[in-house]
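Subject line: Sequence and fold of a protein, written as structure tokens
Area: Proteins and the way their chains fold up in space.
Start of record: The labelled sequence and token lines come straight after this line.
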Amino acid sequence: MADVPHHLVRWAGFAGSVLLAVSAYLGGALPSSPLRSSPVAIWQSRHGPVVLAAWLVGTSLLAWAWWSLRNRDPHPRWVLVTAGLWLLPMLVAPPFGSRDVYAYACQGASFINGISPYEQGVSTLPCPWLDTVSPIWRDTPAPYGPLFVLMAGAVVGITDSLTASIVAFRVICLLGVVATAYAVPPLARRCGVPVGRALWLALACPLVAVHLVGGPHNDSLMIAPLVGGLAVVASRPGRRWPLLGGGALLGLAVAVKVTAVVVVPFAVLAAVVGPVTLRSVIRHGGWVLAGAVATMVGITFGGGLDFGWVGGLTTGGAAVAWTSPPTAVGQTVNSVAQLFGSGIDAIPAARAVGVVVLAGTLVWMWFRAWHQDPLRYAGLALAVTVALASVVHPWYWTWPLAVIAATTVRSTWAALVALVSIFLILPDGVGLARYTKIPGAPLMTLLLILGAVALVRSFRAEDRLRAADRAGRTG
């Protein structure tokens, strides 16, 4: 892999992106395409074999091209040109792999017509494009933060057209990717990570082209201020106004998707100059927290909304797939119970345990970050948050990948997770996880156990190294 020519990587990835755009035109998440489908239904459709072949070959080419340079440090400009080239076909393709953009449009329509998307589903209006929204999300309150709801309302109010709204959402999501390209380099330099490698992992990842832009999904609008806020805090620790600005950027990220809030406590620690003590955390980190809270509260109430959007976090549980490790554990327990004639449903309990474990893990990691690199732990905290969520869509892994790519050189495991996730969604949005509960759920359960063991061993190894270092200095 180390000898693969850069020009071959660039054009192989571009060819893959073109093939994916072809699959989107012939069988993507079009407004008129069936709302309920399956791999078999796709195969039996008019262009089914071509759609699946273009998707498989295109995804494989993109995945190979990205993976082949995962440990290299290409020139940043070359990375940006290559990533931009891979984005082009998806910019002009129909929505790929998801119907979420139609829900965005309907939520915006609800908002500008005086209906809170946090209290009612999009079917309340009714939305003029309701038939394009997946039935599972029609009566579900919006799970997004107030900033994105305001943006969705502005998009629909200006365009007043489904097609124009899709174009506008795609452009906005592209701007989020561009902003991330500006935010990654300063954070990478602060953490001693090669800039070219960080940009390659964060921007050239096929999940970005296929789902963040091709979807399009609003995740890039969270990632950009999240990475930008960390970069500002890391570059100007101990300085009041930069820390306040960095906190404001983090607040913007939270106002798009509340999941970003898990990074704020680690940014508070990163703001400290000198030894981390309770006094220094309050003195320096308090500015980060103040900026984040003020921004989040200001956007919420300034937009005429309330904190009902926090409750939207629980609305995604209707989707059941082994891509969520806690859900996979519940599915595995159910399968084992069925072998003994029992019809229990362990998924709710497994998800509840996942929430408790997540809370405990985040607190534990935060206290560990007091005496280590809090920026690295910010990325790990995002990864754990995704891993223990009740629902995990493949594009969720772009959140931790962007932070991890810029804060640590040990990121192969995060890239591997993203690589596997690329193959889990078909062009029209059918998730293959729904049709592969066996062996998907047992394998995910096993990986969850192995991952937890590896994480604990890694932390213990770090503790031993620090203890040996302290002993060497005192000796």
